[in-house]
Design brief:
Helix content is 24%, strand content 19%. With 641 residues, the protein is an alpha/beta fold.
Length: 641
């Protein structure tokens, strides 16, 4: 055997790797997407072996272990797998898993143990290997990795954990860190904690206090004179700030680590751009922020991103881009939830207002406008939605476990049926025109015919929000291709398939990224999906902090009991069902704890039962078969997985 050397794979190696995988009858699906975590064996100019890994936070899937058939039996595969195990230690991985149909005994020699595939972390189950690229008969094997402690990693662990955002979920993360005795810092763009909640402080949430108080925050506030709100009360968004978040922020351990008016603009690894791999796991995170117009930087061992989506609303344009003329009409477009009966009353009184959106934020704005119309002559309501199907916004009515959520949909249905507004279903807005002081909205219906809404004074855009992805541009993140949520969460939270109560519990493994130490939590972890409750975020951060602390057993124990039925979103005010005849005095606009909602239905995913390699279901993450081995000691040819 000639001298064989190992090195990281390069993009130019793909053609040779592809040939190796094909020669060993291993799947190609997803391999190229994870090339940065591949190692290749080289003999002179010839590539004679390879292996790769799909990195998913603190767990990874070993895959594509292949050796040139004519070189099998020379120990090349053993050398490659040994290198992959060493990399797993340096990366700080806790678990390395694989799927194989032919090499179980061979991998047992490295310490891998046969495990029930049902025990696989959800982050791995999102891969194509588990979704059909590998047969059901494939063996699932697991190796628990002992990370190498270096002087660099010890230095990294001496740094604080950075929590981005001081909303309910961010402060809940801080509470978990305090209880575990871990150092932390909190960076908040607003001048007060809960700044996003204060933007819609007039909103009465549909979820009662028992879902809005983090257990860890509650424990830390006990004995300080704090009065816990009644569990079944429905708070205004502002009350969540004044009665919970601000008292918690005044605790000495929190106050001393809280940086207000500090807007994070970018995150990277110290000395590493997105491309460079070797040693990046031991490099501190560098968080760049703006404070009073000046750049400040913080270093951290881990980052918990709970910045939310509130400040990046979706536009009016049906295609996801601003409608033509939308920017020019911006002064007369309100994005979010206006205080129609309070601070913004004069803006909408005696005006003709179009509300765009099929979610509960739109519903509550309409109900508030209906009340205003009953008090101020000349106030007119127009409602436009992209889809003619309103099942999600009308919700489950009396069957909803959150009575406020059910009552909201019932009230909106009553308003529409009574003729209290002009309703346009199936309108996809393309441009905004301004003529003689009025706004005209132009779009097409479901048949492609042009439709015009004319003579408008104001527009409320309640089409939901999207995450700001610019913050982590220099980090390695893995997102669902259409929801822009954490990739492993996509199949669990797709709004076409789930309501608040049907989303399966999830934790640190689903919230991690290929960038070790980076976690996205809260409503931002759901991307563009509206199905989020604060209680979900509290359990997310409990699991994430446990993982950062190294308590994998606690991190993997994820339990969450959410109320069933209805679309996750916003609240109602008392007696909301009377909105058409005598609307209530309190605002009826609302949000899903920390987000508003309104996503039109999409074709449901189709379950595909694969019987052979390379079969992929409609709803899955990218990726190919897990580790299949061109088995040197067992056979000359390895099959899928």
């Amino acid at each position: 055997m000639s001298a064989v050397t190992l090195r990281p794979a390069k993009p130019s190696d793909w053609a040779a790797i592809e040939q190796l995988l094909m020669a060993n009858k291993l799947p190609l699906a997803g391999a190229r997407d994870h090339l940065e975590a591949f190692v290749v064996a080289e003999d002179g100019s010839e590539l004679v072996g390879c292996a790769g890994a799909e990195l998913r936070g603190e767990v990874a899937l070993l895959r594509s272990v292949a050796v040139e058939p004519s070189r099998q039996g020379e120990g090349i595969g053993q050398k490659i797998v040994g290198a992959m195990l060493a990399q797993a230690e340096v990366r700080g991985l806790k678990t390395l898993a694989l799927l194989t149909t032919t090499a179980r005994d061979w991998f047992q020699g490295f310490g891998f143990r046969l495990t029930e595939s049902s025990q696989a972390p959800a982050a791995l189950k999102a891969s194509a290997e588990f979704q059909g690229a590998c047969p059901a008969s494939a063996d699932f094997m697991v190796l628990h990795v002992e990370p190498v402690k270096t002087s660099l990693s010890a230095k990294l662990e001496s740094l604080p954990v950075a929590v981005l955002g001081a909303g309910p979920v961010g402060l809940a993360a801080a509470a978990q860190l305090i209880e575990r005795g871990m150092e932390f810092l909190i960076l908040e763009a607003g001048s007060r904690v809960g700044a996003n909640l204060l933007d819609y402080g007039h909103v009465r949430l549909f979820s009662p206090w028992r879902y809005n108080v983090s257990p860890a925050m509650s424990r830390l506030l006990e004995g300080t004179g704090w009065n816990r709100p009644a569990d079944e009360g429905l708070p205004l968004a502002a009350e969540v700030v004044t009665e919970l978040l601000e008292p918690f922020a005044k605790l000495p351990k929190v106050e001393s680590n809280l940086h207000l008016a500090t807007r994070v603009v970018a995150i990277t690894r110290e000395g590493f751009d997105k491309v460079k791999s070797r040693g990046r796991e031991a490099a501190p995170f560098v968080i760049r922020a703006l404070r009073e117009g000046k750049v400040v930087e913080f270093r951290a061992r881990a980052v918990i991103d709970s910045t939310g989506t509130w400040n990046t609303p979706n536009p009016l344009g049906a295609g996801g881009l601003e409608a033509t003329g939308e920017a020019q009409a911006a002064e007369r477009i309100f994005y979010g939830i206006p205080d129609v009966l309070g601070a913004h009353r004069a803006r909408y009184a005696a005006k003709r207002t179009l509300v765009v959106g099929a979610g509960h934020s739109a519903a509550n704005t309409l109900l508030a406008l209906a009340q205003l119309a009953s008090e101020v002559p000349g106030t007119e309501l127009v409602w436009s939605v992209r889809s003619p199907v309103l099942t999600r916004v009308f919700g489950g009515g009396e069957a909803d476990a959150l009575s406020a959520r059910g009552a909201l949909g019932t009230a909106l249905r009553s308003l529409r049926d009574s003729g209290g507004l002009v309703f346009h279903a199936g309108l996809r807005i393309t441009r905004i025109e301004q003529t003689e002081g009025k706004l005209n909205v132009v779009g097409v219906d479901e048949h492609g015919e042009e439709q015009r809404l004319q003579g408008l004074d104001e527009i409320v855009c309640a089409t939901g929000q999207r995450p700001d992805l610019a913050l982590t541009r220099e980090l390695r993140v893995q997102l669902d291709p259409w929801l822009e949520c954490n990739e492993a969460l996509g199949p669990l939270i797709d709004p076409n398939l789930h309501s608040c109560g049907t989303v399966r519990p999830h934790g640190h493994r689903e919230l991690a990224h290929p960038e070790p130490g980076l976690y996205t939590v809260g409503v931002k972890s759901y991307g563009r999906a509206p199905t989020f409750l604060m209680a979900t975020g509290f359990e997310q951060v409990r699991s994430v902090v446990a993982a950062i602390a190294g308590d994998v057993q606690a991190a993997d124990r994820v339990e969450l009991d959410l109320p069933e039925t209805g679309v996750c979103s916003v609240s109602f005010a008392p007696d909301v069902s009377a909105a058409v005849q005598a609307p209530p005095k309190a605002s009826t606009a609302g949000s899903c704890g920390t987000s508003s909602c309104g996503v039109p239905a999409r074709q449901e995913a189709v379950e595909v039962k694969a019987s052979q390699c390379s079969v992929a279901p409609q709803r899955q993450a990218t990726g190919g078969c897990g580790s299949a081995k061109a088995q040197e000691a067992v056979s000359a040819t390895a099959s899928c997985c």
